[in-house]
């Protein structure tokens, strides 16, 4: 036996899925999360899976530990060191506001106090040339001031973050300051902006390195807890954590750059979405991970996940490290339906969450949620929600939906349908904007939907966007854990340097690419990877004068002027394809050089599900009244997913139930099941 | 209205869905534009707006990018329709127009419009307005602070076809590109604007296919009526009465005299009348507001104090009537200049509207915000790259305190919502070194809820010569507080010539008439220029501010111990 295990620590449940690579058999486990010590739930899930420690090949964990520390503002005291004269940049921010016409809105509060920001006399210009040298005297003075301030705080919960202007061009000053301060304060972790986020834009780079320092002590605690817990339970298999970029990384690397774990809990979903899309024969995908309070949308093109560097902790508080390109929309099962002052129906972004929860949970919730609407429509089974873990109160939900309907002049079902419709429209609209921003047409994509609520809404959202099909993975409630299981080690390196295409030095570019590639390969080795790495290179470019750039892939080989020219030509072509025009002969700015090194790992195969002849036994057919706008209330066939054989095909109305989710097939849509058990709904 | 009556009313759910779809079309348009535009003020600054109009030129949908244009755009659209006629629009045609006497806020803002056709007939229009960075005229960056006529402010385009049937109207492009200083940038920005219209057109076509032309038109009529009803209900809740407020522009760049804007706001039942008749005659210099700037300021003022839920379209403007006298500061007549009327006078007017509204809805009042964009424009030949550049630079100011909140520090004035340009981008593109960029402690108006802080930035010139222009206000006035709150600090622009020991006003150093408005001043290597923005006004009596809030401000260095004592009566440790 050799079981590869993926774990996903969610807000409510910790999920585990394992694949025995010798037999392709799956094991699954689910256990309540333990927010105080998240690793306890991981260990509990592992115990429940009944996989013996010696049978474990690898363990990979997606965790929200870093994200939660930020969202709950439960991080460390950060002392922020920056170029003198620019101490207020974290407070000045970017000068714009979230809403046009609100006097109530306030700017996001930085993760550092103003009094804990320390300016140092030093300055580089945009070439990285020294304008003001960083002297020992200045460092001495800085250290003295830091020492005084540190005395006010618990050193175990403090961190230093450094961001100097233009450090992404020349890191010398940041490195010297770090060396000096490390000698003086050996117990305090130090984060450097040019290492964490080597990008231009001082506010964004500073905000990122502050966030890194802010969560460092917490992530360090988590990583050390985990190491101890595994050892205590006799688990010796190598374990890794999911990173925001969709790769996995070792405990030591995670501890060094914790801010790169921010999307750890979300990255698995999109990776697994790509895997299941491929199993269903689709390479261009929108992934939709919909849970109780929000849904996370990702885009996969030609089987490749997109990357971004524009994550925000909240509006206006950026973390500019490479992440999988993923956007969170405030719509989920718990999203609340409400009527605005003018009488129009709205859904979200407020959510009832798990507490007080939807009306039908019967735990004190009074506001109609999307889940209540689905229940009223007959799309959810009150006795089989989360496999029966929570009994739903249909009568209560119906009463509240009816009340809402009265205010709108709508009957019970029409009101419930309206709530679901508006929630789905909101999601479809948000996905359209995401696609446009990336120059893509969503109609050419298939939707992969998972999370507890994704399959419930998938077919309708896909139809609203003009897509041809929706795909539902195996165990849609465990998709994120599955993603952790199949993730590969991945190191992303970025070098920010500004060149104009009419004055570019191929040799320098080549040197930096080689240095980054070698560094990344070495790091892969440190993380235990021994195979042949895959290397992807790209250059972020734009026309001289533009401010937003595109990543243009660069072919392998040594960087010659010819190869550079080839890459520049490719930019013109890409620009034409995306925006309908290009400007041949125009100077191009090259601003970022990117390398991603992947350690390909043998993919896991899924077991073939039960084969059977296609005739459905009439005696087995269960039906339930379900409302669809096309038909009104009709008797829809209800099936259990685990009974569906390979090659199963049926035309809706049809509801497929399983422990972790419910899939809705609307009248006229066609559902098929492939040999791995992946379901496709054709629209 | 009559169209809507013939067609069965659209149910509220579909209406809500269609409203969201209209907003989303505009969002998609803006996203496409941001990605492909050229000028930093456009893509870093987000100084543009996207909208949908019906065939009458009524705004039926918009997305939040820059608020300044949302109140004014429908005038530009309607007047254009009156002038060229609906028949002038064919499939694939794009009209452009930046004429301040025909409904634009000032000349840098260009409106592009394309009709959307359905089954051979026009259904409505997709449009956007964007600030094009350089449009010629007497000053690089087209912010001529001492202009006395529109002809000095840049190239004026009345409604013109720039694309016909999808093809370039080459003669128009040639004229435009020959008259802008940085034609490449204009070329890129125009393409971004036009390209985004195509994105929006396609989406409206999809909506038309889904709902049908008549139903979609009926829905947009209903949405207009709905917003109107909503706004009327909000105004009806305000006590009837007449409320007065006024403020002044400190000078117009030509003389040192102030120019006053005076509002008599009448709330009667469910409507409001904004009467500006008593405002001063129009200025010689470019601080005049066009009629549509004044209209937009009034609309925006109301939108700040009413429910956030009102869909923003032409309907919500209907209950607000405007009275202005042509030839005044708030309704400029040809050929009066107006470039600063939109950036400087605009937020002043809006602050006056909010101040008058404070009489009606004191619980939603606010101290004034800084109300100067601190427009600083410069151009020259780059000593290293060799090419000619211009740039439009602005600063954020402090906003006013409101019940429950201190004012935000360093935000774009209320008529815009631009981002600043990062120092690292600025220095990479232009020959300056920024020596400091910080908050100005004690710049906030004191109050129970204090105002927001202003910023200060010092540029050092790193080229043999740079031509600079400035269009500031509030350097000799202050943004007032409200209900006992103190005023925010004044703004300022000062220079320390290389070899000099002190910062001086430009009047002192160069003999400019105005301290805050001047053009074509040549500065040289080693000169330092300091831009200070203005602070926000406080709300309520500073003595009522909780002691712990004052202590925290002192602890964080936002308020000095001296100011805490003088303004708040606070003694540390007491």
Describe the structure.
The complex is a heterodimer of chains A (683) and B (574). By secondary structure, chain A is of the alpha+beta class. Chain A is built from 16 helices and 35 strands. In chain A, strands 13, 14, 15, 20, 23, 24, 31, 34 and 35 form a 9-stranded mixed beta sheet that branches. About 1% of the residues of chain A have low confidence. Chain B has 2 domains: 226 residues, no CATH class; 209 residues, no CATH class. Chain B is of the alpha+beta class. Helices cover 30% and strands 22% of the residues of chain B. At the A-B interface, helix 3, helix 7 and helix 12 of A face helix 2, helix 6, helix 7, helix 8 and helix 10 of B.
The CATH topology annotation of the domain at 98-212 in chain A reads as Rossmann fold
Straight-line distance between termini of chain B: 66 Å
Name the structural class of chain A. Answer: alpha+beta
Determine the strand fraction of chain A and express it as a percent band.
25-35%
Number of domains of chain B: 2
Mean pLDDT rating of chain A: 91
Beta-strand content estimate of chain B: 15-25%
Judging by the overall fold, what is the CATH architecture of the domain at 98-212 in chain A?
3-Layer(aba) Sandwich
Estimated helix fraction of chain B: 25-40%
Which residue ranges of chain A are poorly predicted, with pLDDT under 50 across at least 5 consecutive positions?
A: 613-618
For this structure, the quaternary state is heterodimer
Shape of chain A: globular
Mean pLDDT of chain B: 93
Q: What composes the largest sheet of chain B?
A: 7 strands, antiparallel
DSSP helical segment count of chain A: 16
Give the secondary structure arrangement, pairings included.
The complex is a heterodimer of chains A (683) and B (574).
Chain A: E1 3-9, E2 13-20, E3 26-32, H1 38-49, E4 56-62, H2 65-71, E5 77-83, H3 89-92, E6 117-120, E7 123-124, E8 130-132, H4 136-150, E9 158-163, H5 172-184, E10 190-192, H6 193-196, H7 202-232, E11 239-242, E12 248-249, H8 251-256, H9 264-279, E13 285-290, E14 295-301, E15 304-305, E16 307-308, E17 311-314, E18 317-319, E19 323-324, E20 326-329, E21 335-339, E22 345-351, H10 370-376, H11 394-408, H12 412-437, E23 446-450, H13 454-464, E24 469-472, H14 479-486, E25 490-500, H15 506-526, E26 534-543, E27 550-554, H16 561-579, E28 588-598, E29 622-628, E30 632-640, E31 649-651, E32 654-658, E33 661-665, E34 670-673, E35 679-682
Parallel strand pairs in A: 1-4, 4-11, 5-6, 5-9, 9-10, 13-23, 23-24, 30-32
Antiparallel strand pairs in A: 1-2, 2-3, 7-8, 11-12, 13-14, 14-15, 14-20, 16-19, 17-18, 21-22, 24-35, 25-28, 26-27, 26-28, 29-30, 31-34, 32-33, 34-35
Helix pairs in contact in A: 1-7, 2-7, 9-14, 10-11, 10-12, 11-12, 12-13
Chain B: H1 2-6, H2 12-36, H3 40-43, E1 48-54, E2 59-63, H4 73-84, E3 94-97, E4 109-118, E5 121-131, E6 160-164, E7 167-168, H5 170-179, H6 183-211, H7 213-236, E8 241-249, E9 259-268, E10 271-275, H8 291-305, E11 320-323, H9 339-360, E12 375-381, E13 388-393, H10 423-429, E14 432-439, E15 455-461, E16 466-471, E17 492-496, E18 504-505, H11 506-510, E19 517-523, E20 528-532, H12 547-555, H13 561-568
Parallel strand pairs in B: 10-11
Antiparallel strand pairs in B: 1-2, 1-5, 3-4, 3-6, 4-5, 6-7, 8-9, 9-10, 12-13, 12-16, 14-15, 15-20, 16-19, 17-18, 17-20
Helix pairs in contact in B: 2-6, 2-7, 5-6, 6-7, 8-9
């Amino acid at each position: 036996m050799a079981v590869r295990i993926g774990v996903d620590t969610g807000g409510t449940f910790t999920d585990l899925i394992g694949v025995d690579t010798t037999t392709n058999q799956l094991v699954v486990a689910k256990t309540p999360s333990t927010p105080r010590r998240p690793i306890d739930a991981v260990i509990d899930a592992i115990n429940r899976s009944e996989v013996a420690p010696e049978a474990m090949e690898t363990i990979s964990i997606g965790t929200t530990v870093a994200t939660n520390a930020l969202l709950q503002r439960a991080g460390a005291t950060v002392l922020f060191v920056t170029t003198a004269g620019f101490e207020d940049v974290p407070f000045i921010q970017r000068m714009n506001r979230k809403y046009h016409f609100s006097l109530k809105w306030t700017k996001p509060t930085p993760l550092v106090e103003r009094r804990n920001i320390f300016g140092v006399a030093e300055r580089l210009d945009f070439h990285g040339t020294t304008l003001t040298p960083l002297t020992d005297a200045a460092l001495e003075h800085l250290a003295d001031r830091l020492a005084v301030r540190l005395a006010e705080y618990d050193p175990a919960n403090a961190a230093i973050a450094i961001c100097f202007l233009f450090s992404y061009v020349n890191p010398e000053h940041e490195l010297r300051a770090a060396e000096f301060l490390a000698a003086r304060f050996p117990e305090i972790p130090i984060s450097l902006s040019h290492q964490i986020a080597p990008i231009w834009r001082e506010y964004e780079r500073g905000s990122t390195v502050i966030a890194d320092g802010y969560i460092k002590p917490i992530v360090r605690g988590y990583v050390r807890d985990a190491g101890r817990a595994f050892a205590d339970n006799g688990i010796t298999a190598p374990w890794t954590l999911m990173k925001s970029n969709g790769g996995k990384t070792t405990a030591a690397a995670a501890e060094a750059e914790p801010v790169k774990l921010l999307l750890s809990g979300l990255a698995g979903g999109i990776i697994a979405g790509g895997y299941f899309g491929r199993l269903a024969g689709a390479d261009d995908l929108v992934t939709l991970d919909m849970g109780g309070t929000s849904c996370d949308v990702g885009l996969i093109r030609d089987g490749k996940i997109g990357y971004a560097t524009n994550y925000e902790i909240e509006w206006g508080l950026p973390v500019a490290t490479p992440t999988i390109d993923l956007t969170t929309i405030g719509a989920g099962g718990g999203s609340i339906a409400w009527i605005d002052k003018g009488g129009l129906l709205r859904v979200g972004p407020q959510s009832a969450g798990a507490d007080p929860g939807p009306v039908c949970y019967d735990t004190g919730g009074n506001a109609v949620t999307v889940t209540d609407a689905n229940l009223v429509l007959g799309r959810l089974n009150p006795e089989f929600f989360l496999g029966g873990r929570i009994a739903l109160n249909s009568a209560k939900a119906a009463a509240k939906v009816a009340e809402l309907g009265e205010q709108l002049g709508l009957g019970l079902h029409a009101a419930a349908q309206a709530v679901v419709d508006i929630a789905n429209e909101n999601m479809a609209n948000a996905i359209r904007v995401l696609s446009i921003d990336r120059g893509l047409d969503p109609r050419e994509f298939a939707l992969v939907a998972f999370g507890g609520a994704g399959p419930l809404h998938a077919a309708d959202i896909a139809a609203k966007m003009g897509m041809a099909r929706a795909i539902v993975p195996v165990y849609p409630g465990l998709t994120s854990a599955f993603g952790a299981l199949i993730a590969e080690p991945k190191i992303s390196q970025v070098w920010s340097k500004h060149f104009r295409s009419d004055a570019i030095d191929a040799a320098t570019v080549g040197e930096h690419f080689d240095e980054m590639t070698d560094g990344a390969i070495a790091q892969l080795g440190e993380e235990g990877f021994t195979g042949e790495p895959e290397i992807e290179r790209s250059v972020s470019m734009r026309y001289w004068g533009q401010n937003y750039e595109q990543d243009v892939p660069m072919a392998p080989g040594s960087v010659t002027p010819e190869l550079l020219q080839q890459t520049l030509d490719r930019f013109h072509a890409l620009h034409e394809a995306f925006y309908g025009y290009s400007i041949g002969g125009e100077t191009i700015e090259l601003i970022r050089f990117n390398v991603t090194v992947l350690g390909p790992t043998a993919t896991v195969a899924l077991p073939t599900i039960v084969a059977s002849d296609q005739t459905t036994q009439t005696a087995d057919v269960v039906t339930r009244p379900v409302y669809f706008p096309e038909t009104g209330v009709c008797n829809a066939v209800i099936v259990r997913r685990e009974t569906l054989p390979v090659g199963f095909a049926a035309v809706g109305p049809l509801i497929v139930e399983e422990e972790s989710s419910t899939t809705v097939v609307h009248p006229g849509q066609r559902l098929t099941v492939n040999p791995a058990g992946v379901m496709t709904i054709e629209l | 209205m009559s169209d809507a009556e013939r067609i069965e009313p659209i149910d509220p759910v579909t209406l809500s869905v269609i409203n969201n779809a209209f907003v989303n079309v505009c969002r998609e348009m803006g996203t496409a534009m941001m990605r492909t535009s050229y000028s930093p003020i456009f893509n870093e600054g987000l100084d543009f707006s996207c909208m949908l109009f019906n065939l009458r030129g009524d705004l039926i949908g918009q997305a939040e990018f820059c608020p300044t244009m949302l109140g004014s755009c429908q005038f530009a659209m309607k007047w254009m329709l009156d002038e060229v006629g609906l028949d002038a629009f064919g499939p694939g045609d794009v009209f452009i127009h930046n004429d301040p006497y025909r409904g634009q806020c000032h000349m840098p803002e260009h409106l592009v419009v394309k009709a959307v056709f359905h089954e051979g007939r026009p259904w409505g229009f997709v449009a956007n307005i964007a600030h094009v960075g350089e449009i010629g005229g007497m000053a690089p960056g087209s912010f001529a602070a001492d202009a006395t006529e529109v002809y000095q402010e840049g190239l004026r385009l009345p409604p013109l076809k720039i694309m016909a049937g999808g093809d370039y109207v080459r003669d128009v492009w040639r004229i435009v590109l020959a008259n802008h200083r940085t034609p490449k940038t204009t070329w890129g920005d125009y393409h971004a604007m036009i390209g985004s219209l195509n994105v929006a057109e396609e989406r409206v076509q999809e909506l038309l296919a889904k709902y049908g032309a008549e139903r979609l038109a009926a829905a947009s009529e209903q949405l207009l009526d709905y917003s109107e009803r909503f706004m009327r209900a909000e105004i009806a809740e305000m006590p009837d009465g007449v409320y007065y407020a006024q403020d002044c522009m400190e000078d117009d760049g030509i003389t040192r005299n102030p120019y006053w804007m005076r509002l008599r706001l009448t709330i009667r039942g469910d409507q409001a009348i904004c009467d500006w008749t008593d405002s001063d005659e129009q200025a010689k210099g470019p601080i005049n507001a066009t009629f549509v700037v004044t209209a937009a300021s009034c609309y925006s003022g109301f939108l700040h104090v009413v429910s956030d839920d009102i869909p923003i379209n032409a309907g919500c403007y209907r209950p607000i009537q405007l009275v202005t006298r042509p030839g005044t500061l708030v309704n400029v007549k040809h050929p009066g200049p107006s470039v600063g009327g939109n950036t400087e006078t605009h937020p002043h007017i809006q602050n006056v509207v909010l101040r008058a509204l404070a009489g009606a809805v004191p619980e939603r009042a606010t101290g004034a915000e800084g109300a100067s964009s601190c427009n600083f424009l410069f151009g020259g030949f780059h000593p290293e790259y060799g090419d000619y550049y211009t740039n439009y630079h602005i600063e954020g100011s402090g906003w006013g305190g409101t019940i429950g909140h201190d004012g935000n520090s360093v935000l774009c004035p209320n008529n815009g919502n631009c981002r600043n340009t990062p120092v690292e981008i600025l220095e990479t593109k232009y020959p300056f070194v920024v020596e400091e960029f910080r908050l100005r402690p004690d710049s906030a108006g004191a109050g129970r809820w204090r105002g927001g802080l202003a910023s200060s930035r010092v540029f050092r010139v790193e080229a043999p010569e740079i031509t600079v222009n400035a269009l500031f206000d509030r350097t000799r006035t202050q943004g007032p507080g409200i209900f006992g709150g103190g005023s925010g600090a004044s703004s300022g622009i000062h220079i320390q010539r290389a070899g000099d020991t002190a910062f001086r006003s430009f009047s002192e150093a160069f003999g400019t008439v105005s301290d805050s408005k001047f053009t074509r001043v040549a500065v040289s290597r080693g000169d330092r220029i300091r831009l200070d923005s203005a602070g926000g006004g406080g709300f309520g009596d500073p003595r009522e501010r909780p002691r712990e809030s004052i202590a925290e401000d002192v602890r964080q260095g936002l308020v000095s111990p001296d100011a805490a004592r003088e303004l708040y009566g606070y003694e540390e440790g007491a």
